[in-house]
Amino acid sequence: MNEDKQGTLRVGMVGYAFMGAAHSQAWRNAHRFFDLPLTPRMAALCGRDENRLRAAADQLGWESTETDWRALIDRDDVDLVDVCTPGDTHAEIAIAALEAGKHVLCEKPLANTVDEAVAMAAAARRAASSGVRSMVGFTYRRVPAIGLARRLVRDGRLGEIRQVRAQYLQDWLADPEAPLSWRLQKERAGSGALGDIGAHIIDLTQHITGDRIGSVTGMLQTFVTERPVPTESSGLSAVAGTERGEVTVDDAVAFLARFDGGAIGTFEATRMARGRKNAIRIEINGTQGSLAFDFEDMNVLHFFDATEPAETAGFRRIVVTEPEHPYVGAWWPPGHLLGYEHGFVHQVVDLVTAIGEGSDPLPSFADGLQVQRVLSAVQESADKQSWLEVTA
Amino acid sequence: MNEDKQGTLRVGMVGYAFMGAAHSQAWRNAHRFFDLPLTPRMAALCGRDENRLRAAADQLGWESTETDWRALIDRDDVDLVDVCTPGDTHAEIAIAALEAGKHVLCEKPLANTVDEAVAMAAAARRAASSGVRSMVGFTYRRVPAIGLARRLVRDGRLGEIRQVRAQYLQDWLADPEAPLSWRLQKERAGSGALGDIGAHIIDLTQHITGDRIGSVTGMLQTFVTERPVPTESSGLSAVAGTERGEVTVDDAVAFLARFDGGAIGTFEATRMARGRKNAIRIEINGTQGSLAFDFEDMNVLHFFDATEPAETAGFRRIVVTEPEHPYVGAWWPPGHLLGYEHGFVHQVVDLVTAIGEGSDPLPSFADGLQVQRVLSAVQESADKQSWLEVTA
Amino acid sequence: MNEDKQGTLRVGMVGYAFMGAAHSQAWRNAHRFFDLPLTPRMAALCGRDENRLRAAADQLGWESTETDWRALIDRDDVDLVDVCTPGDTHAEIAIAALEAGKHVLCEKPLANTVDEAVAMAAAARRAASSGVRSMVGFTYRRVPAIGLARRLVRDGRLGEIRQVRAQYLQDWLADPEAPLSWRLQKERAGSGALGDIGAHIIDLTQHITGDRIGSVTGMLQTFVTERPVPTESSGLSAVAGTERGEVTVDDAVAFLARFDGGAIGTFEATRMARGRKNAIRIEINGTQGSLAFDFEDMNVLHFFDATEPAETAGFRRIVVTEPEHPYVGAWWPPGHLLGYEHGFVHQVVDLVTAIGEGSDPLPSFADGLQVQRVLSAVQESADKQSWLEVTA
Amino acid sequence: MNEDKQGTLRVGMVGYAFMGAAHSQAWRNAHRFFDLPLTPRMAALCGRDENRLRAAADQLGWESTETDWRALIDRDDVDLVDVCTPGDTHAEIAIAALEAGKHVLCEKPLANTVDEAVAMAAAARRAASSGVRSMVGFTYRRVPAIGLARRLVRDGRLGEIRQVRAQYLQDWLADPEAPLSWRLQKERAGSGALGDIGAHIIDLTQHITGDRIGSVTGMLQTFVTERPVPTESSGLSAVAGTERGEVTVDDAVAFLARFDGGAIGTFEATRMARGRKNAIRIEINGTQGSLAFDFEDMNVLHFFDATEPAETAGFRRIVVTEPEHPYVGAWWPPGHLLGYEHGFVHQVVDLVTAIGEGSDPLPSFADGLQVQRVLSAVQESADKQSWLEVTA
């Protein structure tokens, strides 16, 4: 079926753990709710362990498998490569795919180093000139409440932005016996809370405000310096063994920031905040109003309009499930909530729409590079105990 | 000092338990924050046990004591009698005081029976004709958020009222070993949750909507039918003895209601809701908007304005601490919260202002009588298992 | 693929509006996250309008279409019939399907009348004896927080249940110009808020408490008695025309209830509560604890444990996204929320698991009949203005 | 009356604006609810403008007046001097009072400079040796929920403290036309948001954790650099004139901190956060649990106990109104909330109790000095754009 659509978009995905499952759900369902110019087809899944790969492809619904990502890129029947691997392999895979003329969706953070990200952004720019598209996966931008936040700022409802506070709080590492997964190894993950979750709040606050962080001073902390080495792992979970290894990334990070437009910001990302599971909290204060968001109540945006009379002014708890809200009209009636995975569906919608329209989707690899520069400046400022400019 | 004020209002109060302490706090402080036409003077406290009475007067700051309420009423140096006794004595004391030309503030519910309340309202009407004022103590009307709710309805911000839901949830009787205080004895208290706390939500919803309950059907329940007889008691607390006695009032009550103006309502009052300490929850839905209030967050009123565009419509969390809000300007800056006792202070403010201005304060004894009629109709409808009109 | 599974379950679905889309999402995705004994196959979609049917099948991913539900039932390649039509057709389709040996999933309420529901329950009982399974679609039971609520009650964490309060608040009919859809026509829908959303809170409270409503007294209200007749409609939305027609169902309903086990309850369902979009609120008070749930924050269950010391007792805000929670382990890491549609996925999981195991799934048609008896008693009690027993 | 008490404590207070009113309320009422060793007597109020002073004394209930604080200190019938003036006069008045043998309660921040604070702490230490007591007015310590937070940390319920995040958000300066009060002039106030409200969260987090901030790096910002000069002012309010003057203090401040015990912290204080009126938000994460507090819901403490099974773990919303909670037993039944001013009452209770017992009350001037050192380090680190140790 779907023959009335203009065509299909054949997707090859590398990696099938946590992000792979989330991306699969998006590729499977986006065209069932949204009108897309191209229908995604889950052509091939790529991984190294053939047995686990086959099981994953079967479970997630991919048509075929490849055990070498180079082979995947070589396939004629793959139009887009979706990179869901740890950060140390992003650059190599993504650049090769772009050079082979494949569109690329790459998980965040774009890379483990600024140098890699520079190369990726350059590759993306070159590819774009021949109509090959690329996008970095800051999916939280696609939560409807975040989309509404961006819209309200752009529409001037907050006036001039003065203050930003952003926190990304988790607690899955609070237990010292939580195993040493790849996310805790600097050579695989680049950094810890900083790059994994700090990257999200950097992107989100810059996206919502439409402004960029210009300088920072940061502080990193590793509270648990040794952990059991896992015997096997998948996604965020792993099975601890008896050997112990060194944690080489940060458990928690905090930094102060100045935005180019004059706003000041405080940022914190941690995996040690007992009782906070995935609390992405963002508050924006402007001259005319304020916004507040918490991912633990992700269908809600709080909005204070300071132009209202004091008698009835108050933070409005907007349940972001109305047809007027971003992405929501395609789903359920008002009050019928969306979940975590819907952000990934919306990401596919925006990406496929851009590919179909022949435009460059956002956030671009250049945007991903800029986030990488902020991450790098935070790390370096912490090392130097001083403020640092984010280089352009 | 205070000699520049026109004069004093000499108060005699009967009872010094929970309500007595709250009223004392109000008489002591009202003129320190509000500009009153008369300055209250805590002239005399009345109770039966001389030793406990003297200790209470000392603690609460009353100038003198009387062990017989008739003697109190006879005193020339008492202008107002404040009745803080159990309900079975309200009628006798209040009527005698009014007939002696004393203004009367009487705790709610006005009486234990409709007949008593009728007599009291008649006495109040007679007294009013010679400038003697009376008021029933539905203090929750004086919580600023409730005052704001009333104002918004009156200003038409909700349109036509369609639905009312009101709950008063406590849990101090959930423990079967909580002692058998006077509040659990029908001959002292008249009823249980119905008259003690149900009366408040009847008054509040009628006050906010400006409408009256016309018919009801109710259900009463006593979950714990025997309790330890207390050896001594004070306020809401008591010390349990070994003897057990019968609970002769309801632990919980619920009723459906139709308002004269066409709205429908659901009401519930209970002392058995584990974890709810003093949760007075009121929601009002109108054609143009809605209100929600919970006394456990008493400085806040939630307001939904349905005339706003759907994109940014949401319940506003109004922190009712602005100078524009009822009573608040006399207190602290915005965001500096008020507490339970402030309602009593505001009650004194409104009462003394009315006395000073020569007007009849609200809620009147006639209002108290009408609440009593609703209470009576709920009880009778529960007995008859049918709907009943509230007689006028 | 999936050849290692024991087989497939070929599904034929009747209806493709709001519920059809939700059910399709469930049939499409359940086996991607859960280990099922049979893999669902979306074999055939049935509807009357051939053009719209084909478009819907294409959009939702059904393999074939039928314009006559009898033809669907006759097909050998359909193992299960999923009934997503208005209530007036449930009985005929479901009974025919069961008699043809097809498993049946039927949307709620089971039927428009008790008589129909009796016939359906009888058909289900007969079918069950030959291994044909049936289930009624009270999907909210499958929200993880509701599953946890049920578990806590069953484990005795609340003690003996004393009080239940349940509200289902929507506002999509608050606007008098909202069109007269089939849900507002008694002959199609049976009743209004009562059967459509009131049925859910009846089922939920009985499910969580493990108890049944024994007697009720109710009140129904139609605030807007005439509405524009729609020229076309789909799901909950419709386009209003210029003609006006009579609303023949209730906009709002409230009732008091007594449960067989001694608890008392208050219930309210309305489509007129401005600002409440899909607020299913349930509170349960027991001798040892309390629970509170609101679907507008559907990933959260509030639990008060009265056995804790008073110093640290408080309602716990349990974010129901831990692997220990019902259904959740198959999805995302803690704090990554689920949405409305996940309840439908879980419904498919439970249904297919029961079919695979050869057991009867819950809620059964007998359970659906019992809810129908409560609905009927509420309606009749409102007519008679008295209490009514729910017949067994 | 009160003759059965051991004696009275005669209080002289300097200043009668916002803080003066709050302190008066405390002196007037503390002994009405708490059993104090000495009964406070509001002996004398001191201010410069005789007319306004007399009106204030009359309004607030002080027995006499003095227009020169030196005369107040000279009076034999004053036992304690309560300093409620702007920060630039604290040192001179407090030191003179201590040297005259008067107990001193001094509003926070202790001084405008570290040097002044050093002198005050030294004077306090000298005075203490002859039984003269001193205390700095960090009243938020006396909010019952904060007292409970301290208790839970001290009892080990949080384990080892890892992270602290604290915000004090107000918005009264968001309007650029808000007048230039003394609080915006460096020579009167010392600093802006930093010293006025930042001091509170420094004290609160150190108090709750029982730990001290060892190093900081900060950022200060003045968003509105010119404001109308007021023609008259009182408390937080003032009347704007037509002339404009320079704002010489910060509107907002943020800083990162490392505690001596190993915890890391993020702090922010601002008067520009539209919609936040007096939001003091504190979160503490430890190895075994977490706490969260917001003064806009000041009767509540949220507590997460990580030792609970994951199935039922969640932040408990503790309504801090139980007799088991700090200070609460003297007030109302559970669920009857306290307000802003009660912290001042509790401050008097603790101070008078310490005086009566002959012990040194907390927080001491030495504690106030340490907070001053942190404030100074934040300011200096912001100037130098680097981290700074807090000198001991």
How is this structure best described in words?
The structure is a homotetramer of 392-residue chains. The first copy, chain A, has 392 residues and is of the alpha/beta class. Chain A folds into two domains: 8-140, NAD(P)-binding Rossmann-like Domain (Rossmann fold); 144-297 and 299-338, 2-Layer Sandwich (Dihydrodipicolinate Reductase, domain 2), CATH 3.30.360.10. In chain A, 32% of the residues lie in helices and 28% in strands. In chain A, strands 16-15-14-13-7-12-11-8-17 form a nine-stranded mixed sheet. The model of chain A is unreliable at 1-5 (pLDDT under 50). The A-C interface holds A 1-2, 4, 18, 22, 24-25, 28-29, 32, 57-61, 170, 172, 235-237, 276-279, 295-299, 319, 321, 332-342 and C 1-2, 4, 18, 22, 24-25, 28-29, 32, 57-61, 170, 172, 235-237, 276-279, 295-299, 319, 321, 332-342. β16 of chain A pairs antiparallel with β16 of chain B, so a sheet runs across the interface.
Major sheet description of chain A: 9 strands, mixed
Quote the CATH topology of the largest domain in chain A.
Dihydrodipicolinate Reductase, domain 2
What would the principal axes of the Cα set say about the shape of chain A?
A: globular
Q: Label the CATH architecture of the largest domain in chain A.
A: 2-Layer Sandwich
Order of helices and strands of chain A: EHEHEHEHEHEHEHHEEEEEEEEEHHE
Low-pLDDT regions of chain A: 1-5
Oligomer: homotetramer
Bin the helical content of chain A: 25-40%
Mean pLDDT of chain A: 95
Q: How many distinct beta strands of chain A?
A: 17
**Rg result of chain A:** 21 Å
User: What order do the strands of the largest sheet of chain A run in, or round the barrel if closed?
Assistant: 16-15-14-13-7-12-11-8-17
So what's the CATH class of the largest domain in chain A? Alpha Beta
Strand-residue proportion of chain A: 25-35%
Number of helices of chain A: 10
Structural class of chain A: alpha/beta
